[in-house]
Specification:
With 271 residues, this protein is of the alpha/beta class. It has 6 helices and 9 strands. The protein has one domain: Nucleoside phosphorylase domain (Rossmann fold). The protein has a 5-stranded mixed β-barrel.
Amino acid sequence: MTQKQLDESVAHLKTKGFDTPEIGIVLGTGLGQLVNEIENPIEAHYNHIPYFPLATVEFHTGKLIYGTIGTKKVVVMQGRFHLYEGYDFSDVTYPIRVMRQLGIDKLFVSNAAGAINLNFKKGDIMLIEDHINLQGGSPLAFKNVAEFGDRFVDMMEPYDIGMRKKIEKIAERESISLQKGVYASVVGPQLETKAEYRMLKIIGADAVGMSTVPEIIVANHLRLPVVAVSVLTDECDPDNLQPVNIQEIIEIAGNTEPKMIKLFKELLKEI
């Protein structure tokens, strides 16, 4: 990754009308319906944006969408990139750097995840308070990282406290049940074994997924305040484990998504 590549990506999007968005939003697996809330949308497919990776997962549509939600100018990633698709950390996080250079000053992230905490249930939403990186690497581990920000990034509070508190108040006001916890990010694409689920619980994870953490690390590198939520689509009880049903996971994500959309729309009004 070079600054020249970022400049070319941003210049292309500006020619399409991506004009100084305020908020970036990353939509996770099965969580694409927020785009229906965007007014006057302008779309840019990933395969038309210089130096963008291509989305390969069938339920990730692969485009950036610019427009307004309420009074805020937003740029939304409909479809994200994962290590399990064969990308590296630089590919996975490249869109975050592009959105930041376009002008966003806050980032919202969503994902679908499995519940490790057995007090959490399918269809719950979890506000991520902290994370555990089990992906075996870092998006900041490249030679010229200092050209883009500090090499050694403090991660004491990777998720913005102010936006987290606002989400909690919104959930209470809107009668949306909101869990809070720690998200563990693994490589995938295989699901976890029973022993791995037990390990995740022991080390303090409340939910597990295959995304988000690289984007959060880069957001902190860019001094970009970020908030993230997980839609919990399955229950990972090693003593009562059932074979995974990907279609059911997508269905649960879709059924829970309206609550996530409500949280994000109300948060947009308040920041």
